[in-house]
Amino acid sequence: MFVYGQLNSNQIHVGIKMAIFSTVHTQAGIRQRSLRKHCRVGRATELVFVLATGVMLTIGGTAQAQDWLGTVNTRFENDGNWDGGVAPAPGGVVTITNNTLNPTQVFVDADVASVTISGTGDLNIRAGVSLTSSTTVQTGGTLTVRGTHIGGISAEAGASMTVVSVGLVNGTLTNAATGSLNAGTINALDNDGGTFTNNGTVTTTTTVDGGTVTNTDTMTGLATVNGGTLSSSGTLTAGANNNAGGTLNITGGTSGAVTNAGILDLSGGTTASVTQSAGSTTVSGNATVTGLTDINGGSLTVNAGQTLTATGGVDIASGATGAINGTVTGDLTTAGDTDVGSGGSISGTMTNSGTGSSNAGTINALDNDGGTFSNTGTVTTTTTVDGGTVTNSNIMTGLATVNGGTLSSSGTLTAGANN
């Protein structure tokens, strides 16, 4: 009977094999046997315990990590470039810490369990070839993907991470480094810190938990911002969820539907719709929302001199606020407190049922259903009062119709009134 075992970092596995022994006795003792000729992964040995009874116990250690030396050339597959004189094989654990002699380049397809790059380590996956690995780039390390990386990549603070235009990362790229760049294609992005620029394509989800992500090209899947900042002048195909603690800046390009509970800034581009539960939306440039701009909580601000083209209209719920200091092109309905500033304007109808709403600028038409409204500016066409109280101290150019509620005027009713 043979008893054999395998040792890894956490446990010893012991098994039993049955065999027929000859009458030759096995000498008891402890032997150490090299696994070099059996294992291309790295240096390993096993201890063989032969007991007086003939039972043999074998304890084998997990292969040690192989470190790049680069003594021959730059080729990853060259045996002479690695300590121990054996290039990594499938299942290998690789460390690249020193590229003083030669950088590390993958010229032919390679498959290992993991690669860790640190110090002055520099790994380049050449165009047209692939590396299958779970790869970590630590402080000082550099990874450049010109070919295909199959598996996840983690770029830690202090690392350098670049995917060039022909590069592909078929896995999730988790970034905390500063200056990381994708000009090719990555499957998914998870940004925890640092800075990341996408000039290429993210084919599935983008998650921003910290740091700053800048998108100038295409993020196909849903972008979720839990913390940090996402700024996009490119395409957010599936739109974005900006949660509390997050900042989303849409500076241009196009975006699908956006939900917001954090800080949303629209300074350009076209967004499918905006639905806000809390936080703030600020229009700091000329921006278009084709669907409904639905402010259920928090605030909406249109800065002076800027235009929100609200094709689907604006709806500000009770408890939310609006400050229109620029231009809203479209209709605005408010059950909250919404004020049009002296330089503000609404090209469509402002429908009010909130308390404390006002106009000191110019609105095309006013429909008051309830609450209170003060006009110290100009209503250029009709005013309709169906409920609540409207006070006019300046100009209502079109006919004022009072069906319910109260209209009090100390200003001008140019076309008169029907009460």
Which segments are poorly predicted (pLDDT under 50) over 5 or more consecutive residues? 1-53, 55-61
Share of helix, binned: under 10%
Q: Kindly report how far apart the N and C termini lie.
A: 108 Å
Mean pLDDT comes to: 89
Beta strand count: 55
Counting DSSP H or I runs of 4 or more residues, the number of helices is: 0
Category by helix and strand content? mainly beta
Strand content: over 45%
> Biggest sheet: strands, sense, closure?
32 strands, parallel
Shape: rod-shaped
Over all CA atoms, what is the radius of gyration? Answer: 34 Å
Word description of this protein:
- With 419 residues, the protein is mainly β.
- The chain is 0% helix and 52% strand.
- The strands form 3 sheets. It has a 32-stranded parallel sheet that branches. It has an 18-stranded parallel sheet, with no helix packed on it. Strands 2-1-5-4-3 form a 5-stranded mixed sheet, with no helix packed on it.
- β1 and β2 form a beta hairpin.
- The protein is rod-shaped.
- The N and C termini lie far apart (108 Å).
- Mean pLDDT is 89; it is low at 1-53 and 55-61.
Give the helices and strands, then pairings.
Blueprint: E1 2-7, E2 12-17, E3 29-34, E4 45-50, E5 56-60, E6 66-67, E7 93-96, E8 104-106, E9 110-117, E10 122-125, E11 130-137, E12 142-145, E13 148-150, E14 153-155, E15 160-163, E16 168-175, E17 180-182, E18 185-191, E19 195-198, E20 201-202, E21 206-208, E22 212-215, E23 218-219, E24 223-225, E25 228-232, E26 235-236, E27 240-242, E28 246-250, E29 254-255, E30 258-260, E31 263-266, E32 270-271, E33 274-276, E34 280-283, E35 287-289, E36 293-295, E37 299-302, E38 307-310, E39 314-316, E40 321-324, E41 327-329, E42 332-334, E43 337-340, E44 345-352, E45 357-359, E46 362-368, E47 372-375, E48 378-379, E49 383-385, E50 389-392, E51 395-396, E52 400-402, E53 406-409, E54 412-413, E55 417-418
